[in-house]
Amino acid sequence: MKLALGTAIVVLVVLLWELARPHLRRMLAGYAQMLAEHRRRSALQGYDPGRELRAEQRARALLRSCVEESDWAMYRDLGFLRVWGAIGDRAQESPAYAYLIYPHKPIVAYVPATGELLNEYCVAFPDHSRPYGSARLPDSDDVLAKWMALNADERRLIGEANMHLPGRQVDPARVAADLSRLASWDRRRSQSADGSVRAA
Q1: Are residues 167 and 176 in contact, defined by beta-carbon separation less than 8 angstroms?
Q2: Do both 35 and 99 map to the same domain?
Q3: Are residues 9 and 60 in the same domain?
């Protein structure tokens, strides 16, 4: 009798569980969805769509205050910076190599005399301070961080970067076009400077 009663109770519990399980599953799924929606809304309440734009404007002002006027004009006009290479033979009149610094792209090394691409150096400077949006620095801050690192300790930056052959992340055709734009930009600046000297 006790065995039959115990078996009946176990069977009843199993049946009740089977009947209640879909309902419990729906309740848990609904709760998880409500929790996710609550988190999303909480995050959006503190998000300011103009934050990214203001951050980039501040970054551009900082970059302008740190680099030479000609470098700032290059970045403003062309969207990248050139840094002359400092490692190697300093007796040469012109540097044997230089770098192009793009926002959020590898640093591209090239030979100024020929335009030959040498390597790409992948370095990243994530922004760990911002609670909203991307973990990436604003474009101008990323360029400034690379510029400072190259000027402060070129050998270390290049030694620690992930080096790749040209074309891995930056299209060589784009770099060639940018080098052509840079050469034209240099010529215009040089002619403008000559004109100013003659006028004086």
Answers
A1: no
A2: no
A3: no
Q: Which of 158, 134, 155 lies closest to 51, judged by CA?
A: 134
**pLDDT tens digits, residue range 102-125?**
999 999 999 999 999 999 999 887
Cα–Cα distance, 146 to 103 (Å, whole number)? 9
Predicted TM-score (pTM) above 0.85: no
Return d(Cα 175, Cα 78) in angstroms, integer: 12
Per-residue pLDDT tens digits for 46-92: 666 688 888 889 999 999 999 999 999 999 999 999 999 987 555 55
- Indicate whether 20 belongs to any domain: yes
Helical segments of 46-171, H only: 51-66, 69-78, 139-160
CA distance 40 to 65: 38
